[in-house]
Design brief:
heterodimer, A: about 290 residues, MetI-like fold, B: mainly alpha
Chain lengths: ~290, ~290
């Protein structure tokens, strides 16, 4: 009897403790979520306000008139449309070529049989450690000499080169777990090596390709230093650099600045809405492997 | 069969684009950076060879050491913050409801460009119209600091924005690693009467020590390379108070046209990043063998 009652009280204790623990856990999780989300929500609200509201009323207030004109204004007057399409063009070109080159290299390293494949992999992966600032001046003078400064090609080239290491790193992890049987059967059937790569191996890597595609897209879309240093014409600027120059001109027009920021953020958020699982997975894969 | 898979020409062809681009745009520039550091050069005019003068000047340049100190502080703060991220990840990896949603929310800031984040946080910190100081005044602090405009608070203020940007990244890495721990092990410990805290600190954390080590390297090396956010938020100011190595390098090279000296700083940055990585690997290795 006594034994039973002590067991019972113990159980009660622990379930009360458990509930308290759960409460604290949710408090932590919700607290972090508010910290992560509130600044964005606040940004969205002030992007719809005019200066009277921003500078005259509480920053916590909801917008009174919901000035969607702010968006219209920056899209046309602020050149946002040009910047936006430059970013799309550069991002898409760089991502497609990065994935192609990375896949070719990973196939040669992980699937083909030769002595120095380990060294080749090391050569590519060590590139991941290089701080881009170290290469900035030499790249600048190199592009100046060959006439690629202020040209989208210079940006596309460096985006590919600097994202190949991480992409190969993630791809090689996937390739190492891929069964060789289908490839071997294709060889027996007399398929050429190019056919094996393009029609058999490459399609099998679609899941990891989409993961690396999204990671590359986000990095390129948001890149600042290279685009800021190598492009000087306003008509060639990308969205990140364009925002910078726009803000410089409209310092006190918070509504317009807010609208610009939201425009730059929305494409990424929309992609995230549809592909969040892949993105979360990609972020984890990219670093856990490293 | 091996004949097809070890065709030297195909290996060469497939590896060429990736290795050529990394070689020309990543490795050659870092070597050239060290070489440019030997010259007095404004980027356009004649290059005057001055030997190691730039590098010896670097050793006594107080701005360089002050920037290095700031970079070191950011690295230290970022490493300490990992403990918090790990804590949140441990909470997330327990059986709380809605953890997938929390994970997805936490990653959102990481998807945005540093430029957009910096522009947003400049406004969060705005002494008069930002929500932070309005909030502080509302709860009774009459004279909240001007955050980014004051020498004493600027680095800390920037660090909070860095936390906002990267917290989700590290939390995702940790939860992905914690997912890999076998359920049986945790259940066995529960049966043995281990408390959740004991399970977390004695079982889960040691089991993901490899990933923790990776994140320490990422946080430290990442902090040494830190640029975009600081450049946009403060430009290294006020009065150099938030200067870091990358921003000092950029200023010397591209604002003051000291390409030689800028290259020397960039090269020092590379050496520091590589040294730190090696040292961390050494420290953690000797710990493991103990």
């Amino acid at each position: 009897m006594t034994l039973l009652s002590t067991v019972k009280t113990k159980q009660n204790d622990s379930s009360g403790l458990k509930r308290l623990g759960m409460g604290i856990m949710y408090l932590i999780l919700v607290g972090v979520a508010v910290f992560q989300l509130y600044p964005l929500l606040w940004l969205f609200f002030f992007s719809l306000k005019g200066n009277r509201e921003i500078f005259g009323q509480s920053p916590f207030a909801l917008p009174e008139d919901w000035l969607w004109e702010n968006y219209q204004r920056v899209w046309t007057v602020g050149n946002m449309d040009t910047y936006f399409f430059n970013s799309v063009f550069i991002t898409v070109t760089a991502v497609v070529l990065t994935l192609l080159f990375a896949s070719l290299a990973t196939f040669a390293i992980m699937r083909m049989k030769w002595k120095f494949s380990g060294i080749a992999l090391l050569f590519i992966m060590v590139g991941y450690m290089i701080p881009i600032h170290t290469a900035l001046v030499p790249l600048f003078s190199m592009f100046l000499r060959v006439g690629l400064l202020d040209n989208h090609l210079s940006i596309i080239l460096v985006y590919i080169a600097y994202h190949l290491p991480l992409t190969v790193m993630i791809l090689s992890g996937f390739y190492s777990q891929l069964s060789r049987e289908i490839e071997e059967a294709a060889i027996v059937d007399g398929a050429s090596i190019h056919r094996i790569f393009f029609q058999i191996t490459l399609p099998m890597t679609t899941p990891v390709l989409s993961t690396t595609m999204i990671i590359n897209m986000i990095y390129n879309w948001n890149e600042f230093v290279f685009a800021n240093t190598f492009l000087s014409s306003d008509s060639l600027r990308t969205l990140t650099v364009g925002i910078q120059s726009f803000v410089g001109q409209y310092l006190t027009d918070w509504g317009a600045i807010g609208a610009t920021l939201v425009i730059s953020i929305v494409p990424v958020l929309v992609a995230y809405l549809f592909l969040s699982n892949r993105i979360v997975e990609g972020v984890a894969a990219g670093s856990v492997k490293g | 069969m091996d004949k097809v898979m070890s065709n030297k020409w195909v290996i060469f062809l497939y590896l060429l684009p990736a290795t050529l681009m990394i070689g020309v745009l990543v490795y050659i520039p870092i070597a050239v950076s060290g070489y440019f550091g030997l010259f007095d050069w404004d980027g356009v005019g004649a290059m005057n060879f001055i030997g190691l003068q730039n590098y010896t000047e670097l050793l006594t340049d107080s701005t360089f050491w002050f920037s290095a100190r700031n970079s070191f502080y950011l690295a230290l703060f970022s490493t300490l913050a990992l403990v918090v991220y790990l804590g949140v990840a441990l909470v997330l990896s327990s059986k709380v409801k809605g953890r997938e949603l929390f994970r997805k929310i936490y990653l959102i800031p990481m998807l945005l460009s540093s430029v957009a984040i910096a522009q947003l946080w400049i406004r969060v910190y705005d002494p008069n119209n930002g929500f932070l100081n309005t909030f502080l005044r509302n709860i009774g602090f009459d004279n909240p600091p001007a955050w980014l405009a004051e020498r004493d608070t600027v680095l800390f203020a920037i660090f909070v924005a860095i936390v906002w940007q990267f917290a989700g990244f590290y939390i995702i890495i940790y939860t992905a690693a914690l997912k890999g721990i076998s359920e049986e092990l945790v259940e066995a410990a529960e049966i043995d009467g281990a408390s959740p805290l004991q399970i977390a600190t004695r079982i889960k954390v040691p089991l993901i020590s490899g990933v923790i080590k990776t994140t320490v390297v990422l946080a430290i090396v990442g902090s040494l390379k830190y640029f975009d956010l600081i450049w946009v938020m403060t430009g290294g100011g006020p009065n150099g108070a938030s200067e870091v190595l990358a921003s000092y390098m950029y200023k010397e090279a591209f604002n003051r046209n000291n390409f030689g000296y800028g290259s020397a700083i960039g090269f020092a940055l590379l050496i520091l990043a590589l040294l730190t990585t090696v040292v961390i690997q050494k420290i953690t290795k000797s710990k493991e063998s103990q």
